[in-house]
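Lecture notes, unit on binding sites. The following record was shown on slide 14. It pairs a sequence with LLP.
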Amino acid sequence: MDHFEYRDGVLHAEDVPLPAIAQAVGTPVYVYARATLTRHARVFRDALAVLPRVKIAFAVKSNPNLAVLRVLAAEGYGADVVSGGELERALAAGMAADGIVFSGVGKTEAEMRRALEAGIGQFNLESEEEGLELAALGASMGTVAPAALRVNPDVDAGTHGKISTGKAENKFGVPFDRAGAIYARLAETPGIAMRGLALHIGSQLAKLEPLEQAFTKVGGLMRAIRAAGHAVTHMDLGGGVGVPYREGEVFPQPADYAAMVERVTRDWDVTLMFEPGRVITGNTGVLVTRVVRVKEGASHPWVVVDAAMNDLARPALYDAWHDFAAVTPDGERFTANIVGPICESSDTFAMARDIDRVTRGDLAVFRTAGAYGATMANTYNSRPLVPEVMVDEGRWAVVADRIDPATILAAERVPDFLKG
Ligand code: LLP
C-alpha cells in the first residue's frame, strides 16, 4: 500500500496534489511519501518482532537520501552501507554507529579505517584477504573489528541475472565449502572478532523458497563452525524481499517472510540481522514526468516524456517494469511506447503498453520508484541530476536539489596544454 491516490481526478502524494510540486520544482522529479516510508518501516519491523533478537540495517543503497535515512533512523533502523560515502550519510542522518554494517567486496583501507574510527557494529567480510587486512588494521589501531563472514551459498535466487548475488559464479562472499576453514583462521587472528555469518542471495525475490534454502544451508554451516569450537552469535540474513511493480502482482508479505525465518532459525540462538532495501523504500516514491510530445509511430505512438534512463535506469538495465499513470487521467486509454529523450534505444520505459491516454504537456508518474531510482540517476546526455521531494501530509520540501548542467560544467577544466 502507498499514499499516492487520486482525489477529484488528480493524483496526490498524501495530501499534496502532484501538479503543485511539478509546477514549483519542475520535472522530472522524484516524490516520496513520508507516510508510506514510515508505514513500510513499521510493518517490516513489527513482522520481525516474532523473532527473539533482531537488528535491522536498512540497505542505504536503495535510497540514500538524507531525509529518508532520517525517517528510518527515527524508526530505530541501523544501516547497511557499502562505501565510505554511504557510511557518512548514515552517520549524518543520526544512525547509531553500532547499528551500521559495512558490506561490499571492495572496501578500501581508508574506508575500513574510517569505519573503525567511527565504531561501526559489524564488517561483513567478503574474503579471507579482506579479513586479514582488516585484522591488521584493527591491531595497528589498537582496536578489534567486529566481523561476520559473508558466505556464497550457491543458491539460485530466481531473479534477474544482474541482481543475483548468491550463485557460485557471482563475485560475492566466500565459497561455501571453504567458509568453515576461513572462519576458523580469522577467528584466531588478533585485531578482528568473528561473530557470525552473513549472506545475501539477490534482490527483488518473488518467492521465499530460495531464501529458505539459503538460510537452511548457512544454518548448517553455523552448526559446523560451532562444533569446531568457534563462537557464532550473529547471523545476517541480508535483504532481497521483492515488491510488486505491476498492478495485480502478488508478493510474499513481511509476515510470511518473518514466519519462514522463525521456522528455519528457531534453534539458532543468535541475534538475527536483516538488510532490507526495496521492501522499505520501493513503494514510497514515484517519478513525476511531463509528456514532451506524442510522436506517431509505425505500430504505436511514441510517448516522449521528459524523464529518461539517466533519471530511472531500471528499465534500461534490468528490463524492469514500472507502472505508468497519468496525473489527471481523462478515462481514455491507448496503446503506446513510452520513451525518454536520450539518444539510444535503451532509453525505453515501455513498449506496446496499454496506458492512460496522455498528450503533450500532461503530467504522469512512474510508480514504485522509491528504491534504486534517484540513487542510480546520472547526468548522461548532459541532463540535470534529478531532484527529490518529500511529502508529509499537506507539507512538502525539496530534499535533494536539481543539479544543473551549468554546475557540472563549472567543475570541469580545460587544461593549459589545450589553451592558446
Ligand atoms: N544487502 C546486500 C549485501 C545487498 O547487496 C543488497 C542489494 C541489499 C542488502 C538490499 O537488497 P534489497 O532488499 O533492496 O533487495 N539496482 C538493482 C538492485 C541492486 C541490489 C543490490 N544489492 C535494482 O534496481 O533492481
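Take-home: Residues 59, 61-62, 80, 103, 163, 165, 200, 203-204, 238-241, 275-279, 314, 318, 372 surround LLP (CB under 6 Å).
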